[in-house]
């Protein structure tokens, strides 16, 4: 046993350890501070609105969001008129009175507009890779919003000795470190209406918050219900204990 340990240590020292180090680096996703963390967590509405802006102006040219309707945006704090105006920016296929194909403006009840007609078209525009639908992505990836943040801020210079395949980009957070998506965010890519500085880190934080909301819009209700249940159980525990004391007193005949 001891000899084996020494042998293993020697092998590591000989440089076989570098592979192990690279592999553990691949899975390390740093945890971020999120307003929605913890039992009392809520979504930061300003961050959600900024995140929607990043999705709309940057990610929506490649990624669909097909489980979301414009009217869902009311949850982000947009007024009815604003939701209507946002929907009306897109064109949807329709039929005119004589049954001819035409287009109409989007309505609040419409699903988000998809950038490509179908999967083949999406792949053809992205060098064969498919940009996944982002509606549920925060729940579909280990690490959730922490992973999304790490991915969006993980575009670094390709390390020496790393072979990148044609058309791929180095990313520290993506499994295997090669991703077909080119770095989507650069400083000042969007101009935030509330004056927040649009650094890559800020945009990554905001769009990850937005993607957490799209994946779990009822998170706040769930947490509030959880807190209520815990409160109820705490009160129940106190009353059960008081009852126990009374019963014990009676039994002991005092
Ligand atoms: C020019 C097109 C393009 C843009 C713009 C773009 N993406 Fe992507 N994205 C892709 C492609 C292609 C893939 C698939 C990559 C692969 O499988 O290698 C992808 C994959 C992803 C993934 C999945 C990674 C995984 O773990 O599988 C996420 C999350 C993502 N993109 C988020 C975003 C966000 C957020 C934005 C906006 C800030 C964005 N993308 C902008 C093309 C794009």
UniProtKB/TrEMBL annotation:
GO MF term set: electron transfer activity; heme binding; metal ion binding
Gene Ontology terms: cellular component: membrane
UniProtKB keywords: Heme, Iron, Membrane, Metal-binding, Signal, Transmembrane, Transmembrane helix
Taxonomic superkingdom: Bacteria
Transmembrane segments: 225-245
Cofactor or coenzyme needed: heme c
Co-factor: note: Binds 1 heme c group covalently per subunit.
Cytochrome c domain mapped to chain residues: 46-197
Cited SUPFAM superfamilies: Cytochrome c
Signal peptide: 1-23
Binding site for heme c: 59, 62-63, 181
Subcellular location: Membrane
Name of the molecule in the record: Cytochrome c1
């Amino acid at each position: 046993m001891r000899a084996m340990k020494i042998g293993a240590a020697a092998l590591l020292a000989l440089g076989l350890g570098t592979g192990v180090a690279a592999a553990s680096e691949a899975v390390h996703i740093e945890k971020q501070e999120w307003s929605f963390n913890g039992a009392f967590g809520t979504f930061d509405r300003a961050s959600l609105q900024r995140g929607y802006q990043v999705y709309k102006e940057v990610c929506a040219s490649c990624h669909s969001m097909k489980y979301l309707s414009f009217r869902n945006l009311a949850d982000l704090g947009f007024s009815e008129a604003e939701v209507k105006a946002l929907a009306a920016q897109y064109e949807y296929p329709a039929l005119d009175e004589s049954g001819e194909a035409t287009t109409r403006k989007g309505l609040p009840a419409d699903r988000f507009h998809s950038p490509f007609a179908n999967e083949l078209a999406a792949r053809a525009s992205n060098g064969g890779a498919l940009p996944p639908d982002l509606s549920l992505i925060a729940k579909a990836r280990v690490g959730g919003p922490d992973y999304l943040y790490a991915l969006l801020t993980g575009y670094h210079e390709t390390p020496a000795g790393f072979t990148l395949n044609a058309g791929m980009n180095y990313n520290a957070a993506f499994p295997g470190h090669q991703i077909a998506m080119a770095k989507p965010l650069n400083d000042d890519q969007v101009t935030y209406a509330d004056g927040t500085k649009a650094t890559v880190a800020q945009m990554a934080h905001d769009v990850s918050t937005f993607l957490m909301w799209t994946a779990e819009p009822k998170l706040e209700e769930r947490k509030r219900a959880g807190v209520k249940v815990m409160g109820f159980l705490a009160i129940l525990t106190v009353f059960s204990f008081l009852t126990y004391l009374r019963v014990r007193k009676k039994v002991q005949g005092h």
